[in-house]
């Protein structure tokens, strides 16, 4: 009964927090790390959890199926995408990110830092409002109008100086995103950072994630971001083919 209780508590934690480490489980349950590791290993075996390359445990396919409409990204997304993120970062010498939509937020799942001395750091694990990130805007643009509006019943959740001011302004920007196939971010999520993002679509055409190239604003003009969109779009297609 104790083992079953621990397993159920960890499933609940995964559902609520979306990511766990062995030390988190040990602290929450008040057990040794070896016990926490065994519980997580059992959940991985049964499909309730998956472990990414950073040894972080996330909801697995069995848990995502129970969550229904709250299903997360494909379990192999990070594993498949990372080599492509690395190649893109090497090619453009800027930082690359992988992110998914969580409600009206964008969650950074993985990243590779650029090779230049002045560069943007990767932000794995961070959750930001989707409408202030280029990847988030690319994913919002892929949603049908009714689902998009349902994400913002009270308008945009955060007032940032350079972000869209209201829902209608966001809608107008998303029209441009759909037309060009990529979204831009000019210091909306962080001062001194510009970025371009595009959707990763699986073989059914569904938008499951976004890839972003982020660079210091001093060398990422609008024209430069447009240039970066070409290798970026090629990368998203390659990742999609691998899913």
From TrEMBL:
What residue range is the signal peptide? none
Q: Where is the HTH iclR-type domain?
A: 1-61
| PANTHER family xrefs | HELIX-TURN-HELIX TRANSCRIPTIONAL REGULATOR, ICLR FAMILY, HTH-TYPE TRANSCRIPTIONAL REGULATOR RV1719
Keywords on record: DNA-binding, Transcription, Transcription regulation
Name the Gene Ontology biological process terms: negative regulation of DNA-templated transcription
Which superkingdom, per the lineage?
Bacteria
Q: Which PROSITE patterns match?
A: HTH_ICLR, ICLR_ED
The GO terms describing molecular function are: DNA binding; DNA-binding transcription factor activity
Domain (IclR-ED): give its ranges.
Answer: 55-243
**Cross-referenced Pfam families:** HTH_IclR (PF09339), IclR_C (PF01614)
Q: What protein am I looking at?
A: IclR family transcriptional regulator
Gene3D superfamilies linked to this entry: 3.30.450.40, Winged helix-like DNA-binding domain superfamily/Winged helix DNA-binding domain
Entry-linked InterPro entries = GAF-like_dom_sf, HTH_MetabolicPath_Reg, Tscrpt_reg_IclR_C, Tscrpt_reg_IclR_N, WH-like_DNA-bd_sf, WH_DNA-bd_sf
